[in-house]
């Protein structure tokens, strides 16, 4: 599919399921242009944005903040631990309040799957919602930076052999990526503990043992073991997990010379991937973090375009 223009218009960004292939390619294209030095559009008026993170984050939170500042937006501090959330304020009432104060865009990470539905369905709230991760639901900005990284490498998605390996059930990154990568024509494989795999993923790709397919892969996408979302399902020692499902030196050598390794991070070193491979030649893990800033600039631009057209 040829890459399309960079004129994507969004009211919210909450799930990859809501984006067309053209919109995805447009956002990636714009992210690449911004990374290559293309200037962002001048703001016509003051725009306020607030980042509401109710779950821990380094990359998503800080790269949205860098993206916002590069675009010249006014970033309104929000810290859940010192806000009225501690007095029982609900997420809905927090966003209702910020909206009433004039905040235009709320970037939100929350543990509740689909938390955004009550916000985008509200007749009162007019702020745009950007989902920075909803529990084990969706992580659209991570998915877009992953797609940008793959596109920069291969210039296409059609026919690429991509294995998503690890804690798939609990991973919002996996959910977002499997949906869009299948739509874009990639051939998907899933690997990892059967305890963290569900038949619902069969419609997107094939569940295999990592050693059965590693030599054929273009992209080896590793996932963090999400201990905070586990409920006693599947307990492995670091060594056992690394040996059975992780990327060690032996498996690294079996990858094609053109293959790349990805991981949304944070990385559990020597669990999903050997410590020595995080910055190895085939790794794009650091590049993914860098690309996050530019694709998030593209997302925010598309949202501002959408607000202008309202
Ligand atoms: N990949 C990712 O979402 O990282 P953070 O949890 O640090 O934001």
Search tags:
four-stranded parallel β-sheet; binds phosphoric acid mono(formamide)ester; 310 residues; Rossmann fold; 2 domains; alpha/beta; globular
Order of helices and strands: HEHEHEHEHEHEEHEHHEH
CATH homologous superfamily label of the largest domain: Aspartate/ornithine carbamoyltransferase
Mean pLDDT reading = 95
CATH topology of the largest domain: Rossmann fold
Helix content: 25-40%
**Assembly type of the shown chains?**
single chain
Identify low-pLDDT runs.
Answer: none
Question: Main sheet?
Answer: 5 strands, parallel
Bound molecules: phosphoric acid mono(formamide)ester
Number of domains: 2
What would you say about this model in short?
With 310 residues, the chain is α/β, with parallel strands linked by helices. It contains 10 helices and 9 strands.
Describe this structure in words.
With 310 residues, the chain is α/β, with parallel strands linked by helices. The protein has two domains: 3-138 and 291-309, Aspartate/ornithine carbamoyltransferase (Rossmann fold, 3-Layer(aba) Sandwich), CATH 3.40.50.1370; 140-289, Aspartate/ornithine carbamoyltransferase (Rossmann fold), CATH 3.40.50.1370. It is 36% helix and 13% strand. It contains ten helices and nine strands. The protein has helices at 21-35, 59-70, 91-101, 116-120, 140-154, 172-183, 210-213, 238-245, 249-254, 285-308, and strands at residues 48-53, 74-76, 105-110, 128-134, 161-165, 187-191, 206-207, 219-222, 260-262. The strands form two sheets. Strands 7-6-5-8-9 form a five-stranded parallel sheet, with helices on one face. A four-stranded parallel sheet has the order 2-1-3-4, sandwiched between helices. The longest helix is centred in the last third of the chain and has 24 residues, at 285-308. The model has no long low-confidence stretch (mean pLDDT 95). Phosphoric acid mono(formamide)ester is lined by residues 57-61, 142, 264-266.
């Amino acid at each position: 599919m040829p890459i399309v223009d960079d004129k994507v218009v969004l009211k919210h960004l909450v799930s990859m399921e809501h984006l067309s292939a053209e919109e995805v390619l447009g956002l990636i294209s714009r992210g690449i242009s911004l990374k290559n030095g293309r200037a962002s559009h001048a703001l016509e008026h003051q725009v306020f944005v607030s980042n509401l993170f109710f779950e821990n984050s380094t990359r998503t939170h800080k790269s949205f903040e860098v993206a916002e500042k590069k675009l010249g937006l006014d970033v309104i501090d929000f810290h859940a631990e010192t806000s009225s959330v501690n007095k029982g304020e609900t997420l809905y009432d927090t966003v209702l309040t910020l909206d009433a104060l004039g905040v235009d865009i709320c970037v939100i990470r929350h543990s509740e799957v689909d938390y955004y539905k009550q916000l985008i369905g509200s007749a009162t709230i007019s702020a745009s919602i950007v989902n920075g991760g909803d529990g084990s639901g969706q992580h659209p900005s991570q998915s877009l930076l992953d797609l940008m990284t793959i596109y920069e490498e291969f210039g296409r998605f059609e026919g690429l052999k991509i294995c998503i390996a690890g804690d798939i059930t609990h991973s919002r990154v996996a959910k977002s990526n499997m949906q869009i990568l299948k739509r874009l024509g990639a051939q998907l494989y899933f690997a990892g503990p059967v305890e963290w795999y569900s038949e619902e993923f069969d419609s997107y790709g094939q569940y295999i043992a990592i050693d059965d397919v590693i030599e054929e892969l273009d992209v080896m996408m590793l996932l963090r073991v999400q201990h905070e979302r586990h409920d006693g399902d599947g307990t492995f020692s670091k060594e056992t997990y690394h040996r059975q499902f992780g990327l060690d030196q032996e498996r690294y050598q079996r990858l094609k010379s053109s293959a790349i390794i990805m991981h949304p991070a944070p990385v559990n070193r020597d669990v999903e991937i050997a410590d020595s491979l995080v910055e190895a030649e085939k790794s794009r893990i650091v590049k993914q973090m860098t690309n996050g800033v530019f694709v998030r600039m593209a997302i925010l631009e598309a949202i501002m375009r959408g607000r202008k057209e309202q």
